[in-house]
Design a protein that fits this description.
Elements: E1 4-9, H1 13-25, E2 31-37, H2 49-53, H3 68-73, E3 76-80, E4 82-88, E5 93-98, E6 104-108, E7 111-114, E8 118-120, E9 133-135, H4 139-149, E10 157-161, H5 165-176, E11 180-185, H6 197-209, E12 213-216, E13 222-226, E14 229-235, E15 238-241, E16 244-247, E17 251-253, H7 256-260, E18 285-287, E19 294-295, E20 302-303, H8 308-322, E21 336-340, E22 343-349, H9 352-358, E23 362-370, E24 381-389, E25 395-402, H10 410-418, H11 423-426, H12 443-457
Parallel strand pairs: 1-2, 1-7, 2-3, 7-18, 9-16, 10-11, 10-16, 11-12
Antiparallel strand pairs: 4-5, 5-6, 8-17, 13-14, 14-15, 19-20, 21-22, 22-25, 23-24, 24-25
This protein binds flavin-adenine dinucleotide.
The site of flavin-adenine dinucleotide has 35 residues, from helix 1, strand 2, helix 2, strand 4 and helix 5.
Length: 459
């Protein structure tokens, strides 16, 4: 077999999953693998950054699943602090800049894996990077935040702009570090993309319970800096003093480099791929993770859902295919989970707003129950909301807000959504029961019963 070279752009979840899978299938004598990463780390958990900053995880290195040296031992050449600046599809070559040593290297590829991730949305008024304004995406971003928090005098007031799950997790981390925190959200509830307003209200209560001031409907006009340090976030209602500002305004796929090379980018801004994660119409070029768009299996529409769970699976699929195997990534249904202090928040499928936008007619059912048998120590209240299609009763979505391992019930609901179950058949699901784990009627079953009644009433 002819020796080939796989070049990877981006050394985290998607890129290094692909590298590892391809390496498993093809030995060093057949496949050379070169990974370019512009940061200082490989295979890190960005998801763990809020917990490291908040002190729940003590060591930065605990977030690194595989160091560059470990990858090198597996026969993957890692070029850290190398930023790929150009892709030439005709020559099958990438150009990378050495960010520390200077200069450029050109590297030929037979296969190219594009896994450049995404970048935090950064409005024009938030680009003064040296001043204590941070987006959170890479472990380098996390390290920069840690450095800023360690400054003398220590920051005392944090403003988090954007109340999505990253904003909320970072707000909690700031509280844990002893800062006074304000969370600004332009819509009328935090986590508006995750939860319907009634469920979002429970999340807001939990955030405020941490002592975080939540301002919804809040527009930001700019950020004041002085002497190279942020001083305040300016809103129509006045200036909010801040010593650190964290952006949680969402992310955009890092697809510009690919687009410049002529690779197809979809309406969501993510690269378009086929089911095997091959970039649409381009042999030998693959893409995965936060830089790609995928298909929402309920709406059938393209979607950009930047989550580690997808990045790892898609990278694995690409790596298997690069290695000569066969694997596919069918799409997503919007499952996600997070927590605010001890309140857990989870979703799968569509929210009411998303179901409306997709054109579904639906009913909803919300139940409050307990996570364990009511008499068992540690039983906590949990709320489940189900969204089911009118007439067919097909489960379209579910949301859970609650404590004591409430949120992981979303996985049973995700399986039901994935398999297009209707809520009536769900009432008979053989879910587990013992007092330390659930009431005799698990909240999922109670919710399915109530949703069934709502479907029948809608006929
Ligand atoms: C704070 C936080 C919490 C999160 N929590 C969760 C969670 O709980 N659950 C979940 O499923 N997901 C979570 N995520 C999302 C998850 O981390 C991402 O979806 C995942 O990291 C995406 O992996 P990726 O490999 O596609 O991109 P990234 O992890 O962004 O990696 C891309 C890499 O490419 C490098 N790069 C970019 N451009 C170039 C270039 N031109 N040349 C060389 N290198 C380049 C970057 O430096 C980066 O290291 C969280 C993210 C954050 C930021």
């Amino acid at each position: 077999m002819r020796r080939m070279r796989l070049v990877i752009i981006g050394g985290d979840a998607a890129g290094m999953s692909a590298a590892s899978q391809a390496r498993k299938r093809l030995g060093r004598d057949v496949l050379e693998i070169v990974a370019f990463e512009r940061g200082h780390f490989t295979s890190y958990s960005a998801c763990g950054i809020p917990y490291w900053i908040g002190g729940v995880v003590a060591e930065r290195d605990a977030l690194v699943a595989r160091t560059p040296d470990e990858h090198r031992k597996a026969g993957i050449q890692v070029r850290l602090r190398h930023e790929v600046t150009g892709i030439d599809l005709d020559r099958r070559e990438v150009v990378a800049r050495d960010l520390d040593g200077g200069g450029e290297v050109k590297t030929h590829f037979d296969h190219l894996m594009y896994a450049a991730g995404a970048s935090p949305v950064t409005p024009d008024w938030a680009t003064d990077r040296g001043a204590g304004i941070f987006g959170v995406q890479t472990l380098d971003d996390g390290a920069a935040i840690q450095e800023w928090l360690a400054r003398d005098p220590a920051p005392r007031r944090a403003v988090v702009i954007g109340g999505g799950y990253i904003g909320v997790e970072m707000a909690e981390a700031m509280v844990r570090r002893g800062l006074r925190v304000t969370l600004l959200e332009k819509s009328d509830q935090p986590m508006a993309k995750t939860a319907d307003p009634d469920m979002g209200a429970l999340v807001r209560q939990a955030i405020e319970g941490l002592g975080i001031e939540v301002r919804t409907g809040a527009a930001v006009e700019g950020i004041d800096t002085e002497g190279g340090r942020v001083r305040a976030v300016v809103t129509p209602g006045g200036a909010l003093p801040a010593d650190i500002v964290l952006l949680g305004l969402g992310v955009r796929p890092n697809s510009a480099l690919a687009e410049q090379a002529g690779l197809p980018v979809g309406a969501t801004g993510g690269l378009r791929t086929d089911l095997r994660m091959r970039v649409e119409g381009v042999d030998g070029v693959w893409a995965a993770g936060d830089c790609v768009e995928t298909r929402h299996l309920l709406t059938g529409r393209p979607a950009h859902v930047p989550l580690g769970t997808h990045a790892n699976k898609q990278g694995r699929v690409a790596g298997i295919n690069i290695g000569g195997g066969y694997a596919t990534f069918p799409g997503v249904i919007g499952t996600a989970v997070t927590k605010v202090c001890d309140l857990e928040v989870a979703r799968t499928g569509l929210t009411s707003k998303e179901a409306d936008s997709a054109g579904f007619a639906y009913v909803t059912a919300t139940v409050a129950s307990t996570s364990r048998a009511g008499y068992y120590p540690g039983a906590e209240t949990m709320t489940i909301k189900l969204i089911a299609e009118r007439r067919t009763g097909t489960l379209l979505g579910a949301q859970i807000v609650g404590k004591a391992e409430a949120a992981k019930r979303i996985d049973a609901l995700a399986v039901a959504v994935w398999n297009r179950m209707n809520v009536e058949e769900m009432t008979a699901l053989d879910l587990s029961y013992a007092p330390p784990f659930a009431p005799v009627w698990d909240p999922v079953l109670i919710a399915a019963r109530k949703a069934t009644e709502a479907v029948h009433a809608s006929l």
